[in-house]
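User: Design a sequence. Structure:
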């Protein structure tokens, strides 16, 4: 099977379509490529192999959404820590000999 060498412009076009649609497999099928190759091109593009990275091509990350998710995760983590502390206190009260193992 003969190897095909794709141009930089073609790779950038495929990367742009894949990041816009969010579906590497669909874009790969459209251009008769392997989905792994499309993923590799996207990774190389983000690393700057094809020149300067154009932020308009990459998907937007909303900082507000990230901060909201971060706050939710902090709350969940705090609840888990509290639950662990309560369970340890219960073990100490019922089985004082296990106190050595918890430290």
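Assistant: Done.
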């Amino acid at each position: 099977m003969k190897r095909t060498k794709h141009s930089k412009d073609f790779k950038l076009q495929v990367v742009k379509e894949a990041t816009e649609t969010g579906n590497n497999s669909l874009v790969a099928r459209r251009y008769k490529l392997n989905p792994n190759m499309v993923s590799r091109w996207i990774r190389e593009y983000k690393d700057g192999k094809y020149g300067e990275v154009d932020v308009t091509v990459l998907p937007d990350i909303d900082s507000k959404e990230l901060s909201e998710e971060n706050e939710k995760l902090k709350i969940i983590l705090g609840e888990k820590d509290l639950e662990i502390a309560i369970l340890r206190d219960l073990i100490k009260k019922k089985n004082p000999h296990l106190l050595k193992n918890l430290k």
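The mean pLDDT is 83. The first helix runs from residue 8 to 21.
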